[in-house]
Amino acid sequence: MISKVKIKVIRLAMLGNTRVGKTSICRVFFSDYFREDEFVTIGHYKYEKQIRMEDGNDLKLIIWDTSGQERFHYMSIGLCKKVQGMLLCFDLTNKETFNRIKLWLDEINDINPNLPIILLGNKYDLIDKRKITEEEVEVFAEKCSLPY
Predict the structure, then answer these.
(1) Model-level pTM?
(2) Does residue 1 form part of some domain?
């Protein structure tokens, strides 16, 4: 008799303004592929990867890469009902995307107040273009009780 191994599935969504690098993060993680002229995501795209954990069990990770465009906003924020966690992204070289994080948090908490959220600052490598200090992010993350 063949036994079926149950694989744990983790579903996450990646939210944030347009052009913060959500798709680039997903592409690098899921396929080790980066392109500087990435296209803007329309709607959302599902990335999947099976990962062997240290304990020998397999985990299936699904991340929904969402559009940051305003016309897809309600579709993107609606994923809060279907996922087990949220990756909330901003661009360290664009102050507006960081300022918008509080609004994203309020919307997420209105839909799913117990949803675990991780704050991601992207474009860390662009040191000379950086507009948000490490201290600003750390203070904000601590105030909102978010891992960064």
Answers:
(1) 0.78
(2) no
